[in-house]
Amino acid sequence: MKQNKLKIISAKDLGKLALPDFCPRCFWIERHLGNPPSIFPGIFSTLDAVTKRSAHRAFAEKGSPPKWLSISDAIEIEEGDTYFKLPIQDKGWVLVGKPDDIFKLKDGSYHIVDYKTAKFTGRQDELFPMYEIQLNAYAYLAEKYGFEPVRKLSLIYCQPKDDLDNDENFSLSFTVHYLEVPLDLEKVLSLLSRAREIVDQDKPSEARYGCQGICNWIKGINF
Questions:
Q1: How much is the pLDDT for 1?
Q2: What is the DSSP string of 56-111?
Q3: Contact 75, 105 (CB under 8 A)
Q4: Number of domains in the chain
Q5: pLDDT for the residue 45
Q6: Can you give the residue range of the structural domain that contains 212?
Q7: What is each CA distance from 162 to 64, 157, 207, in whole angstroms?
Q8: Cβ neighbours of residue 131 under 8 Å, at least 6 residues apart?
Q9: Is the pLDDT of residue 25 over 90?
Q10: Alpha-carbon distance 191 to 194, whole Å?
Q11: How is residue 45 annotated by DSSP?
Q12: What's the chain's Rg over C-alpha atoms?
């Protein structure tokens, strides 16, 4: 059972390898022993789910995107939660992922998006390299499942406005920003190979210098 778990990697976890502060020791520990306790609030996932429901409701009611979603050439939206699970030929690894939404465009191609409830900071966002790999992994999986060709990838940032629309009803509104993500499926295969190299080691490698991740957390509990 443990061995099977080691062989499954999500699109998001694969994206961690692209971060500037990626630590191979943290990754090995995470894959072999699990993550430390997290206190990250779930409200952002809830808001992302609301965003997704808004898009699906608009297509169900009028067959087109909602006004806030500027994907004018979208003619269909994939219904339900599309979950991909694909065995990779080398060493029996399995890549998994669940895109937020997949839109079919007028030309027959597909546009995959990921919703983020966050402040829009453009390409300076320190997490962009992870999101780039995550979306490209979705594209790689989607094409293997018949959603081809994937021609566009986008991050859609829903940024809360500074002021309430209605103080009495506590009504909060958002501005929407789009960030196109370059298609580069070769990066997915390259990082899959790198992930396998790290996890297949009998013991973790040295920590990245100055690591503030799991390595630092473990060091803090060594009384």
A1: 42
A2: HHHHHHHSS--TT---TTEEEE--S---EEEE-SGGG-EEEE--SEEEEETTS-EE
A3: yes
A4: 1
A5: 77
A6: 2-220
A7: 29, 15, 40
A8: 15, 114, 116, 125, 155, 181
A9: yes
A10: 5
A11: H
A12: 19
Q: Name the residue with tokens 């430390």.
A: 36
Confidence (pLDDT) at 213: 85
| Placement of tokens 């940032």 in the chain | 157
Question: Which residue is associated with the tokens 């998001």?
Answer: 12
pLDDT beyond 80 at 92: no
Q: Which amino acid is at 19?
A: L
pLDDT, tens digit (0-9, with 9 covering 90-100), for 100-118:
999 999 999 999 999 988 8
Note the residue count of the chain.
223
State the CATH number of the domain containing residue 172: 3.90.320
